[in-house]
Hints:
By secondary structure, the protein is of the alpha/beta class. It folds into two domains: 9-99, de novo design (two linked rop proteins); 104-350, 3-Layer(aba) Sandwich (Rossmann fold), CATH 3.40.50.1820. It is 42% helix and 16% strand. It is built from 13 helices and eight strands. Strand 3, helix 6 (154-164) and strand 4 form a beta-alpha-beta unit. Helix 3 (48-61) packs antiparallel against helix 4 and helix 4 (65-75) packs antiparallel against helix 5.
Amino acid sequence: xxxxxxxxxxxxxxxxxxxxxxxxxxxxxxxxxxxxxxxxxxxxxxxxxxxxxxxxxxxxxxxxxxxxxxxxxxxxxxxxxxxxxxxxxxxxxxxxxxxxxxxxxxxxxxxxxxxxxxxxxxxxxxxxxxxxxxxxxxxxxxxxxxxxxxxxxxxxxxxxxxxxxxxxxxxxxxxxxxxxxxxxxxxxxxxxxxxxxxxxxxxxxxxxxxxxxxxxxxxxxxxxxxxxxxxxxxxxxxxxxxxxxxxxxxxxxxxxxxxxxxxxxxxxxxxxxxxxxxxxxxxxxxxxxxxxxxxxxxxxxxxxxxxxxxxxxxxxxxxxxxxxxxxxxxxxxxxxxxxxxxxxxxxxxxx
Length: 351
């Protein structure tokens, strides 16, 4: 179930350029690709998939599988709406495994079979840990959002594993990445994560934290509020105000979200609003079952209202940070934000 929708690639570059270069792609290569792309969906010269794939193939031919992973990641961006996008994801996975011997951390790719709606579902996870990490070290579950997935964020997960001295389990949310075969829903997406939490409990005697970015932050807020994990980090997560009826989406996000939710055609505004409003976490915010939580976002986020960060102010065992001068998930200031996250994680899990 997927669909394409009108999308101007120039808008994507406006918003995502800092992320493209910030995770390691050379500025000059991103600039050249940006200049070459004139359309979003055709798999032909000037098309998004074609030009990013051409860059990825150049990297692969030079033995830079790590950069090929990032370029293929942008080729399949922003969602698996058609066959060229799905093929780009498969190529990204191939390059990722080719790059694995060069990782500065131990790495394992594992496919889990987890309970899902009375049956089972398959979920692929990546386990990263510094060499020699004790078996009882804490585990940090980690995921991105609706359009930035576990392989796209690999450089961040490596840093997290190295700095936090936790075993990082990276996974894709339901409706995204290698879990796109399952539509994203509040309960179904949580059930998938509960299966990953159970796996984390089984591979370590230590505590389990959940770190979610963007829509991943919705689910880490949810597991933190319910007490399903031992600690929760929410970076740019929608919580309540973002799901209010009638809210619009910026930079093509309506199509990205619609695909993740499982629509096979562009939904009407009312259909999408109705589906999205079901994610509202107000019922959990009204309870007091939460674990320690760290909630952060950029003050200038165009996607998530400030209230979805500030709503956690004054709650017990909760630290709230609204970072000035940056936008969604504070990506442009991530080098400053990551140490805050790591220090809080160490203090909370070791305490």
